[in-house]
Design a protein that fits this description.
Strand content: 15-25%
GO molecular function: FMN reductase (NADPH) activity
Largest sheet: 7 strands, mixed
Pfam family, one: FMN_red
Order of helices and strands: EHEHEEHEHEEH
Keywords: Oxidoreductase
Shape: globular
Protein name: FMN reductase
InterPro entries: Flavoprotein-like_sf, FMN_Rdtase-like_dom, NAD(P)H-dep_reductase
Helix content: 25-40%
Number of strands: 7
Length: 188
Protein backbone atom coordinates (compact mmCIF):
# COMPACT_ATOMS: atom_id res chain seq x y z
CA UNK A 1 0.00 0.00 0.00
CA UNK A 2 1.30 3.43 -0.92
CA UNK A 3 1.44 6.30 1.53
CA UNK A 4 0.62 8.90 -1.15
CA UNK A 5 -2.41 10.98 -0.31
CA UNK A 6 -5.60 10.06 -2.12
CA UNK A 7 -7.78 13.03 -3.06
CA UNK A 8 -11.51 12.49 -3.45
CA UNK A 9 -13.83 15.24 -4.66
CA UNK A 10 -17.53 15.07 -3.89
CA UNK A 11 -19.96 16.80 -6.23
CA UNK A 12 -23.62 16.89 -5.41
CA UNK A 13 -26.59 18.16 -3.60
CA UNK A 14 -29.06 20.78 -4.65
CA UNK A 15 -29.53 24.48 -4.09
CA UNK A 16 -31.29 23.69 -0.83
CA UNK A 17 -28.74 23.55 2.02
CA UNK A 18 -28.78 20.19 3.78
CA UNK A 19 -30.75 18.52 1.00
CA UNK A 20 -31.19 14.76 1.06
CA UNK A 21 -28.73 14.36 -1.83
CA UNK A 22 -26.12 16.52 -0.06
CA UNK A 23 -26.50 14.45 3.09
CA UNK A 24 -26.06 11.26 1.07
CA UNK A 25 -22.91 12.72 -0.52
CA UNK A 26 -21.45 13.54 2.88
CA UNK A 27 -21.99 9.95 4.10
CA UNK A 28 -20.01 8.60 1.13
CA UNK A 29 -17.27 11.23 1.58
CA UNK A 30 -17.02 10.51 5.31
CA UNK A 31 -16.39 6.87 4.45
CA UNK A 32 -13.72 7.86 1.90
CA UNK A 33 -12.04 9.97 4.59
CA UNK A 34 -12.16 7.06 7.06
CA UNK A 35 -10.45 4.96 4.37
CA UNK A 36 -7.62 7.50 4.34
CA UNK A 37 -8.58 9.96 1.61
CA UNK A 38 -8.45 13.71 1.76
CA UNK A 39 -11.90 14.89 0.72
CA UNK A 40 -13.56 18.07 -0.43
CA UNK A 41 -17.27 18.56 -1.06
CA UNK A 42 -18.56 20.89 -3.73
CA UNK A 43 -22.28 21.29 -3.18
CA UNK A 44 -25.17 23.62 -3.92
CA UNK A 45 -23.73 27.16 -3.91
CA UNK A 46 -20.31 25.88 -5.08
CA UNK A 47 -22.00 24.57 -8.24
CA UNK A 48 -23.91 27.69 -9.25
CA UNK A 49 -21.97 28.28 -12.44
CA UNK A 50 -22.64 29.92 -15.79
CA UNK A 51 -23.94 27.47 -18.37
CA UNK A 52 -20.90 25.67 -19.74
CA UNK A 53 -19.72 27.05 -23.08
CA UNK A 54 -16.49 25.71 -24.54
CA UNK A 55 -16.13 28.84 -26.69
CA UNK A 56 -15.75 30.97 -23.56
CA UNK A 57 -12.30 30.51 -22.05
CA UNK A 58 -12.68 32.76 -19.01
CA UNK A 59 -13.99 30.98 -15.93
CA UNK A 60 -15.60 32.25 -12.77
CA UNK A 61 -13.70 31.58 -9.53
CA UNK A 62 -16.27 28.86 -8.70
CA UNK A 63 -15.78 27.17 -12.08
CA UNK A 64 -12.00 27.36 -11.72
CA UNK A 65 -12.22 25.82 -8.24
CA UNK A 66 -14.37 22.96 -9.57
CA UNK A 67 -12.11 22.21 -12.54
CA UNK A 68 -8.93 22.39 -10.43
CA UNK A 69 -10.40 20.13 -7.76
CA UNK A 70 -11.31 17.53 -10.38
CA UNK A 71 -7.93 17.91 -12.11
CA UNK A 72 -6.15 16.94 -8.88
CA UNK A 73 -8.64 14.28 -7.82
CA UNK A 74 -7.78 10.61 -7.68
CA UNK A 75 -11.48 9.81 -7.39
CA UNK A 76 -14.87 11.43 -7.27
CA UNK A 77 -18.20 10.82 -5.60
CA UNK A 78 -21.14 12.29 -7.47
CA UNK A 79 -24.63 12.37 -5.97
CA UNK A 80 -27.47 13.92 -7.92
CA UNK A 81 -31.05 14.48 -7.02
CA UNK A 82 -33.39 12.91 -9.54
CA UNK A 83 -35.70 15.52 -11.07
CA UNK A 84 -38.39 14.29 -13.46
CA UNK A 85 -36.48 11.10 -14.15
CA UNK A 86 -33.12 12.74 -14.79
CA UNK A 87 -30.11 14.21 -13.02
CA UNK A 88 -30.38 17.83 -11.97
CA UNK A 89 -29.29 20.65 -14.26
CA UNK A 90 -26.96 21.84 -11.49
CA UNK A 91 -25.02 18.56 -11.51
CA UNK A 92 -25.11 18.16 -15.30
CA UNK A 93 -23.71 21.65 -15.84
CA UNK A 94 -20.93 21.01 -13.31
CA UNK A 95 -20.02 17.80 -15.14
CA UNK A 96 -19.96 19.68 -18.46
CA UNK A 97 -17.03 21.70 -17.06
CA UNK A 98 -14.96 18.48 -17.11
CA UNK A 99 -14.54 19.30 -20.81
CA UNK A 100 -11.90 21.81 -19.66
CA UNK A 101 -9.73 18.80 -18.77
CA UNK A 102 -9.71 17.51 -22.36
CA UNK A 103 -6.14 18.65 -23.16
CA UNK A 104 -4.71 17.41 -19.83
CA UNK A 105 -2.26 14.54 -19.40
CA UNK A 106 -5.22 12.74 -17.76
CA UNK A 107 -8.08 13.96 -19.95
CA UNK A 108 -11.58 14.18 -18.57
CA UNK A 109 -11.98 11.63 -15.73
CA UNK A 110 -9.43 9.23 -17.20
CA UNK A 111 -8.13 6.76 -14.63
CA UNK A 112 -10.35 8.03 -11.84
CA UNK A 113 -12.81 5.98 -9.83
CA UNK A 114 -16.22 7.59 -9.67
CA UNK A 115 -18.74 6.61 -7.03
CA UNK A 116 -22.29 7.42 -8.06
CA UNK A 117 -25.61 7.75 -6.32
CA UNK A 118 -28.99 9.18 -7.19
CA UNK A 119 -31.49 10.42 -4.63
CA UNK A 120 -35.11 10.85 -5.67
CA UNK A 121 -38.63 10.66 -4.30
CA UNK A 122 -39.48 7.40 -6.06
CA UNK A 123 -37.66 4.45 -7.57
CA UNK A 124 -38.11 5.36 -11.22
CA UNK A 125 -36.27 8.69 -10.96
CA UNK A 126 -33.60 7.22 -8.67
CA UNK A 127 -32.82 4.36 -11.05
CA UNK A 128 -32.90 6.40 -14.28
CA UNK A 129 -30.75 9.13 -12.73
CA UNK A 130 -28.13 6.60 -11.61
CA UNK A 131 -28.11 5.13 -15.12
CA UNK A 132 -27.52 8.59 -16.60
CA UNK A 133 -24.69 9.28 -14.15
CA UNK A 134 -23.03 6.00 -15.19
CA UNK A 135 -23.42 6.87 -18.88
CA UNK A 136 -21.89 10.32 -18.36
CA UNK A 137 -19.03 8.84 -16.33
CA UNK A 138 -18.25 6.36 -19.11
CA UNK A 139 -18.38 9.16 -21.71
CA UNK A 140 -15.88 11.12 -19.60
CA UNK A 141 -13.56 8.05 -19.38
CA UNK A 142 -14.18 7.55 -15.66
CA UNK A 143 -14.45 4.22 -13.89
CA UNK A 144 -17.80 3.86 -12.08
CA UNK A 145 -17.44 1.88 -8.88
CA UNK A 146 -19.03 -1.57 -8.96
CA UNK A 147 -21.69 -0.40 -6.52
CA UNK A 148 -23.92 2.56 -7.29
CA UNK A 149 -26.74 3.85 -5.17
CA UNK A 150 -30.37 4.41 -6.12
CA UNK A 151 -31.94 5.94 -3.04
CA UNK A 152 -35.68 6.48 -2.74
CA UNK A 153 -36.47 9.27 -0.28
CA UNK A 154 -40.10 8.18 -0.19
CA UNK A 155 -38.72 5.28 1.87
CA UNK A 156 -35.52 6.61 3.46
CA UNK A 157 -34.64 9.95 5.04
CA UNK A 158 -31.10 11.18 5.72
CA UNK A 159 -30.45 13.08 8.92
CA UNK A 160 -28.03 15.91 9.74
CA UNK A 161 -25.57 13.70 11.65
CA UNK A 162 -24.64 11.22 8.93
CA UNK A 163 -27.34 8.64 9.36
CA UNK A 164 -30.53 7.57 7.70
CA UNK A 165 -33.81 5.94 8.57
CA UNK A 166 -32.68 2.82 6.66
CA UNK A 167 -29.27 1.41 7.58
CA UNK A 168 -28.99 -0.23 4.16
CA UNK A 169 -28.79 3.23 2.53
CA UNK A 170 -25.93 4.26 4.82
CA UNK A 171 -24.13 0.96 4.19
CA UNK A 172 -24.46 1.44 0.42
CA UNK A 173 -23.11 5.00 0.49
CA UNK A 174 -20.25 4.07 2.81
CA UNK A 175 -19.24 1.22 0.50
CA UNK A 176 -19.32 3.55 -2.52
CA UNK A 177 -16.95 5.97 -0.73
CA UNK A 178 -14.64 3.14 0.26
CA UNK A 179 -14.59 1.64 -3.25
CA UNK A 180 -13.48 4.99 -4.71
CA UNK A 181 -10.50 5.08 -2.33
CA UNK A 182 -9.61 1.41 -2.90
CA UNK A 183 -9.61 1.88 -6.68
CA UNK A 184 -7.57 5.09 -6.42
CA UNK A 185 -4.99 3.32 -4.27
CA UNK A 186 -4.77 0.47 -6.75
CA UNK A 187 -4.15 2.97 -9.56
CA UNK A 188 -1.33 4.63 -7.60
Amino acid sequence: MTSAAINVVGIGGSLRPGSQSERALRIALDSAAEAGAQTVALTGPDLVLPFYDSAITERTPEATRLVEAIRHADGLVIVSPGYHGALSGLIKNALDYVEDLRPDRRPYLDGRAVGLAAVAYGWQAAVTTLDQLRTITHALRGWPTPLGGSLNTAEVKFDEVGGASEEKAVTTLRLIGRQVVEFARARH
